[in-house]
Amino acid sequence: MKRSTFPLLVILILAAIVVTTSTPAAILPENGPSAFGAGQFRYLNPDTERTEIWNFSFEAIANKNGQTRGRAHFENLTAQKQIVVRINCLSVQSTNVPSGIILNAGMTGKVLHTDYPHLAKSTTVAFAAIDGPLPIGTDNITPLFEFPFPELDCSYAQPLTLLAVENGDIEIQP
Q1: In-domain check, residue 160
Q2: Whole-model pTM?
Q3: What is the DSSP secondary structure assignment for residue 99, as one 8-state letter?
Q4: Which of 7, 12, 54, 98 has a C-alpha 20 to 30 A away from that of 41?
Q5: Does the residue 46 lie in any domain?
Q6: Domain count of the chain?
Q7: 111: domain range?
Q8: Residue 18 included in any domain
Q9: In angstroms, rounded to a whole number, what is the distance separating the alpha carbons of residues 9 and 14?
Q10: DSSP states of 52-90 as a string?
Q11: For the segment 25-66, what is each residue's pLDDT rounded down to a tens digit?
Q12: Bridge partners, residue 85, by sequence
């Protein structure tokens, strides 16, 4: 009799553990906006008057309270230099257009690593990304810019130089 009740008792204990430790969907934390992207862009550098080819990748996720975590990597393939940024602010806006919805993400963060002597570690930088409307929209990105107003949040960080994304994609969720 002990042999037949032991497996049943183990199954009942395991079932009780599963039921009491599973989290119902209603109490899962809500996420805020997010932005992800990777690809290339071409940038006409005004200092050198050369067109540079850049690789980029970024991910930024905000929680429901607006706190953001993320990372961006920009690599100048022409100059063989890179910049790594810890993203700490994400602002997403949406615009309705006849062909769909355009989502725009402004991001700021601190430089973690750079090969550029004029851009010091811990400098606040900004960039923006645009998720073009489906089905034929073009995604755009800006190069990194020094953001001289660290006391302002990233909703003010909307650089004007928009460049078409090549060989990549940008996904933004409000």
Answers
A1: yes
A2: 0.79
A3: T
A4: 98
A5: yes
A6: 1
A7: 31-173
A8: no
A9: 9
A10: EEEEEEEEEEEETTS-EEEEEEEEETTTTEEEEEEEEEE
A11: 444 446 899 999 999 999 999 989 999 999 999 999 999 888
A12: 72, 111
